[in-house]
Amino acid sequence: MDELNWGIAHRVLMPAFGPLSIAGMLDEMHDLAGLLAMNWARHGSSVPIMVADDFTRLTVDILALWPWATYRFNSFYHDEILPFIEAMGSFLTESGSRFRRPPFTSIFYRDSTHKYFEDIDLRNPTDRKEDLLTAMLNGTDPKTGRKMTDSSIIDNLITFLIAGHETTSGLLSFAFHQLLKHPEAYREAQEEIDEIEHIGQLKYIAAVLRETLRHSPTIAQFSVAPIQDEIIGGRYKVHKDQPIVVLLVKWQMDTTVYGKDADQFMPERKLDVNFDKLNKEFPNSWKPFGNGSRACIGRPFAWQEALLVTAMLLQNFNFRMDDPNYQLHIKQTLTIKPKGLFMRCSLRDAPLSGSEPRKDAHKAGAPAAGAAKKSNGKPFSIYFGSNSGTCQSLAHRLAQDAPSHGFEAKVVDPLDAAYGSVTPNEPVAIITASYEDQPPDNVGLFVNWITSLKAHEMEKMSYAVFGCGHHDWSETFHRIPKLIDSMLDEPGGTRIAPIGLSDAAKGEMFTDFETWEDEVFWPAMSEKYSIKQCAEAEVVPALSVEFSTPRTSSLRQDVREACVVDVKTPSAPGQPLKKHLEIRLPTDMTYRAGDYLVVLPLNLKQSIILSAPIGDRRTNLPINESLSMDDVLGAYVELGKACYEEADTTIQSILPGKETLQNLAGNDYVAEISTQRSRKIELSFGTFLTPISSSPRWNPSHVTLTFSILEAPSLSGTEHRYISVASNFLANLGVGDRLHVSMLAVPLPALLRLPRPGCGRAVPRRYGPMAGDGRRGRAARIQPADRPPGRGGLQVRSASAAVGERRALVRARRPILHTCPLMYRATFRRLI
Ligand code: HEM
Ligand SMILES: Cc1cc2nc3c(=O)[nH]c(=O)nc-3n(C[C@H](O)[C@H](O)[C@H](O)COP(=O)(O)O)c2cc1C
């Protein structure tokens, strides 16, 4: 933009960026930030937040609320980023590329050029009546008395929209990344919000934002030009008007200004006094908003917005990194943003600011969406600290075992989710590792918090700790679990049970954990809370199933199920076919002469909604969604096996006994137990849906399956019909038929735990009556299909032979992963 037009535009726009105008926008900014907070609160801690995307939605919405504008983007009412914003994103990238391309090469970039102009066309989204554009059209420059030209208006509008949202959303995204990586700074920032009353008092958060902009200036470079020939620093000659690019990322990391630790994130150096001092000593050392008269006109707007949003979010939520191992990657358009950064949030105690206190307000670490709805046991919380997954998996194991001890895990969350508040009077189990003397990545905040607690502050907390470590780190062996165990004791916490510890070097972590669970933790919990442990036979269903009738609820017609009780064919042979049906109506439906009976031609498929106890990983079926029964049984559930761990108990009760089972386990690791045709097994539909699978390894590329068709008298007609459909599918397979199968790698040693002499338990309860050779095994999952199996698929041999045999397969409860963390991790990821 030339100097004259820039000057006119600058002066026309200036009043809108004055302090009064910006302050007047505080309420609207607050409302919109409230929408974002509501949105995050609604999704809860189970849904990862796409940090940069959500902040972009917010900053776009805020920008569009400029006092002159009447248009609301309402980005949070759309799942996808709005086309306008997407267009702006690709426009930005293309602008950057066009700038870098050599002149006269646009012919080679026709597609990009076409898209570039299409994106520009999208810039003015709807029928605004009075907005920023109108103001630019009518505004007059007080100095020259001139109006802005059309091309200047277009340039400014685009600059304004781009400069006004990308930058601030980038700043917010980087700031949250820094806070999550620096627990002390996070705590300090959150404490400040809890203490102050007005946004102007947010000194520390302001320092966080300044230091963020030093590390990650969202406009990473700008250019300046000398107004006369110059020699810079006594060494570099530059001519008048020669553009010089200021690379802010380097510029702001100058060690002469910031010292040897210039690359460290230290908000303290940007606290008001230090910041002023720095600006006096090195006036150009911090330039994220540009330079001179061309510097950012929107700085006060951005500053108010960023302060407000950061404060509101930290006030209402606890945050943690979705992937504690996330390494910062940059996405660059004209601005920079963190790429692939996800975080999770849970509401803090306080009601959402700007909203009424909610009756169902979650506490920190409240149950994730998808958690089991029913609560039968005494609630308790499980937190883990884990970088490579072992402690996380132990935490889920504990949750899974809880119901059979009369407890129910409300949450299974990283320990940082408990930062700042632990639900009083409810037991807490903590399972954590140590890394180089430090807490795992998702524990830093918590440890930092408890170090600051004073006497009696934890009086209402009861806890137990289990620690994983490795004796190679001899100096710091189990340091973090031990530290947490003793530190919670100091401010008055009650230790429910002595700490349990395991050494990864010995490779017995799951066994150590189970021993601690069975012999220390659960007995102590039962005693403290006077809760009786469930009898052996009382098993917890893997899934509960609710049958739903979507058509009844979605049609405004009372659709019910009637039954055909008689069919007659009154037509004589050779005449057109006639049918006479007698239909029995549902009991509370009556028919009078003249009534009109609506018959819907197709029976809609039965639907079900599955829910699972929290932390229970025995199923990978979609939870808490209405699913068509056909989809579930035809496309999601493995066929061939209808019983799993809960059914083990039932099967064992009708079989000769453990000893025989172990004998049967014999040389192969799959125990096949013949049941008689007449045996009936009580089996819930939820149990049926929990998959098992098995594959004797007689040949690496083939597998034989022996399966049973279980008769389950406890099931309703519909359930039974579906089970039969599922089972019969496999039963009716013939040579040449095709199946959908997939492979799940399971670490075999995990499956094959046999009772070891002198281990204290006759049969380790997890591993069931299996035998094996300790090599790696695979489990096949089989689903109906009309396509040939892909590479690595399984071939089913002589399945029909199995029909008459009616056998049940009994396998280990589920893959137990007690091998090295790395192997575990690879496997675990594939299993869930
Ligand atoms: C953290 C947030 C922001 C940062 C880091 C930032 C940074 C910058 C920088 C470095 C420039 C100068 C570019 C150059 O010299 O080439 C600039 C210019 C500009 N910014 Fe910002 N900006 C931010 C937020 C905003 C906001 C919220 C608005 C509008 C509401 C805005 C509107 C503008 C405009 C219109 C210009 C051009 C100014 C002119 O040429 O007179 N910026 N910004
Ligand atoms: C880089 C590294 C550092 C470790 N530092 C320690 C340590 O200081 N003290 C300790 O007891 N164990 C240490 N360990 C062992 C881990 O704590 C142990 O493997 C633990 O089971 C990991 O749990 P996780 O899989 O839940 O993260 C370290 C392991 C690694 C890979």
Walk me through this protein's architecture.
- It comes from Lipomyces orientalis.
- This is Bifunctional p-450/nadph-p450 reductase.
- With 832 residues, the protein is α/β, with parallel strands linked by helices.
- The chain has 3 domains: 294 residues, Cytochrome P450 (Cytochrome p450, Orthogonal Bundle), CATH 1.10.630.10; 152 residues, Flavodoxin domain (Rossmann fold, 3-Layer(aba) Sandwich), CATH 3.40.50.360; 204 residues, no CATH class.
- Helices cover 36% and strands 14% of the residues.
- It has 27 helices and 24 strands.
- The strands form 9 sheets. Strands 10, 11, 12, 13, 14 and 15 form a 6-stranded parallel beta sheet that branches. A 3-stranded antiparallel beta sheet has the order 1-9-6. The protein has a 3-stranded antiparallel beta sheet with strand order 16-19-20.
- Strand 10, helix 15 and strand 11 form a beta-alpha-beta unit.
- Helix 4 runs antiparallel to helix 8, helix 8 crosses helix 10 and helix 9 crosses helix 16.
- It starts with a helix and ends with a helix.
- The site of protoporphyrin IX containing FE has 22 residues, from helix 8 and helix 14.
Give the arrangement of secondary structure elements.
Blueprint: H1 3-13, H2 19-23, H3 26-43, E1 49-50, H4 51-63, H5 83-100, H6 110-121, H7 132-138, H8 150-181, H9 183-195, H10 203-215, E2 221-224, E3 230-232, E4 236-238, E5 244-247, H11 248-251, H12 255-258, H13 272-281, H14 299-316, E6 317-321, E7 329-332, E8 336-339, E9 342-347, E10 378-385, H15 390-401, E11 407-414, E12 427-432, H16 444-451, E13 462-469, H17 479-489, E14 494-495, E15 500-503, H18 509-529, E16 544-548, H19 550-554, E17 563-568, E18 580-584, E19 607-611, E20 626-628, H20 629-636, H21 645-654, H22 658-665, E21 671-674, H23 685-689, H24 717-731, E22 739-746, H25 748-751, E23 777-784, H26 801-805, E24 807-810, H27 821-831
Parallel strand pairs: 10-11, 10-12, 12-13, 13-14, 13-15
Antiparallel strand pairs: 1-9, 2-5, 3-4, 6-9, 7-8, 16-19, 17-18, 19-20, 21-24, 22-23
Helix pairs in contact: 3-4, 3-14, 4-8, 5-6, 8-9, 8-10, 8-14, 9-10, 9-14, 9-16, 20-24
The structure holds protoporphyrin IX containing FE (HEM) and flavin mononucleotide.
Residues 386-392, 433-437, 440, 468-470, 473, 476-479, 504, 821 line the site of flavin mononucleotide (FMN).
